Amino acid sequence: MKVELSVNGGQRTVDIEPRKTLIDCLRDDFGLTGSHAGCEHGICGACTVLLDGEPARSCLIFAVQADGYEITTIEGVAPAPGELSVIQDAFCETHGMQCGFCTPGMVMTATAFLKRNPQPTRADIVEAISGNICRCTGYGQIVEAITLAADRLARANMPRGDQG
Amino acid sequence: MKPVPFDYVRPGSLEEACALLAEDADARVIAGGQSLVPMLAMRLARPARLVDILRLSELSGIRNGDSRIVIGATTRQATAEAHPLIVGKVPLLKIVMPWIGHAATRARGTVGGSIAHADPSAEIPLVAATLEAEIVVQDVHGQSVIAASEFFVGPMVAAIPLGALVREIRMPVWTQPRIGTGFHEVNARHSDFAFVCAAAQVGLDDQGRCTACAVGVGGLGEYPIALKEAAAVLIATTLDEAAITDAVEAAMAKVDVFGDLHASADYRRRVGGVLARRALIDARRSALDAAQ
């Protein structure tokens, strides 16, 4: 079955079986292996991508259902090749990862979350990532990363003198 | 974790969707997919064909109908959570929403999908049972209305006739001057399946006397149930704690409860009663607060 998908700003056409999930299509057909396939039944959050800016588990949607959405993967969040988004950078700086398997899902979840809630409390952040499992149990630094990113994003447009 | 092969069709109209379901007993409806796709992945469901109704405009949206709020089946849970008609007129549905899955699943999952999936511990079916909602199902012959108390018939089994789909859910709107709600749940981690959950909505008159009462429990048996006897006993009282405790205890003694690895039947019955009591106490308190 032919489907045309809009991924990270580009159009791609692919001929696939209806049973192929979006995560498998992204990884196998488009070579976008940044999104990780973990549990493949909607529990772990490692495959989280954005559909029209909203977080979605790409293992819980078939690729043939995903036409018409603007799909953003972890490969699409950096402003330019070789650069990192503010959130990615914060994950590096605080070392908000151990093995790194959950990291793309965490970053995508945080990306959508901080757009909706730019000034989160710690409890808000913990709730926001409660659907993303880190089996290294490195949640402390992940929360720290999102806190740092929120702070930097909030101050990004302030005049230099006010940035503290 | 890959589903069996299936055909995928996306009908352009509700009529077409019903015709597709009528001609193929092995077809299943898919919308948000947040419950069905895991079942497909684990091969607990093996349909020959998926009929995708998510983009049918007839099935989406929330409107004000004749003493009820009508929620189109494919309305996203995240949309319902923030919708002014739900926030203003179906407050019990509003307060359970944060307990359903996570932001990523609520952004895709639909209200009708949760109803049709009929998980005995799910929050939206609990609200539908508690408030005595009506579920409208549609097939090629037309639509019919099923009371929530008749709709949920077993774990993951709803009384949707073969070849029909859930079209809309009609939630009753209460008109008492003061309305309050309460909801409690015990689970393993936030937004995981509830072992036990309980919901209550009460309406008070200007003297603080209860003029409308609904309380229900989920996760205890094969489907969520309204504790109608308890609600009836509490009408015309001031909902003091002793009255609530007696009413809930009497009603809970008659509920069929199952046990499993997560929680024994005794635990579920006891916790179900405690949560129902707390939900009623919270509902009364929030109704009194709402008046100030």
Q: Could you please describe the fold and organization of this structure?
A:
The complex is a heterodimer of chains A (164) and B (292). Helix content of chain A is 33%, strand content 14%. With 164 residues, chain A is of the alpha+beta class. Chain A has 2 domains: 75 residues, Ubiquitin-like (UB roll) (Roll); 77 residues, DNA polymerase, domain 1 (Orthogonal Bundle). Helix content of chain B is 35%, strand content 26%. Chain B is of the alpha+beta class and 292 residues long. The longest helix of chain B has 26 residues. The chains are: A alpha+beta (164), B alpha+beta (292). The interface between A and B is medium-sized, with 29 and 30 residues.
Which blocks of ≥5 consecutive residues of chain A have pLDDT under 50?
A: none
User: Per CATH, which architecture of the largest domain in chain B?
Assistant: 2-Layer Sandwich
**Secondary-structure arrangement, i.e. CATH architecture of the largest domain in chain A:** Orthogonal Bundle
Largest sheet of chain A: 5 strands, mixed
- Structural class of chain B comes to alpha+beta
> Gyration radius of chain B, to the nearest Å?
19 Å
| CATH topology (fold) name of the largest domain in chain A | DNA polymerase, domain 1
Question: In what order do the strands lie side by side in the largest sheet of chain A?
Answer: 2-1-5-3-4
- H/E order of the elements of chain A? EEHEEEHHHH
> Mean pLDDT score of chain A, rounded?
95
> Strand portion of chain B, in percent?
25-35%
The tally of structural domains of chain A comes to: 2
Q: Give the count of helical stretches of chain A.
A: 5
Count of DSSP helices of chain B? Answer: 12
Report the top-level CATH class of the largest domain in chain A: Mainly Alpha
Strand order of the largest sheet of chain B: 4-5-10-6-7
Spatial shape of chain A: globular
How would you summarize the topology of this molecule?
The complex is a heterodimer of chains A (164) and B (292).
Chain A: E1 2-7, E2 10-15, H1 22-29, E3 48-51, E4 54-57, E5 70-72, H2 86-93, H3 103-116, H4 122-128, H5 139-155
Parallel strand pairs in A: 1-5
Antiparallel strand pairs in A: 1-2, 3-4, 3-5
Helix pairs in contact in A: 2-5
Chain B: E1 7-9, H1 14-23, E2 27-30, H2 36-41, E3 49-52, E4 62-65, E5 68-72, H3 77-82, H4 84-89, H5 91-96, H6 103-106, H7 111-117, H8 123-130, E6 134-139, E7 142-147, H9 148-151, E8 152-154, E9 157-158, E10 165-172, E11 178-187, E12 194-204, E13 210-218, E14 225-226, H10 228-234, H11 241-252, H12 265-290
Parallel strand pairs in B: 1-3, 2-3
Antiparallel strand pairs in B: 4-5, 5-10, 6-7, 6-10, 8-9, 11-12, 12-13, 13-14
Helix pairs in contact in B: 10-11, 11-12
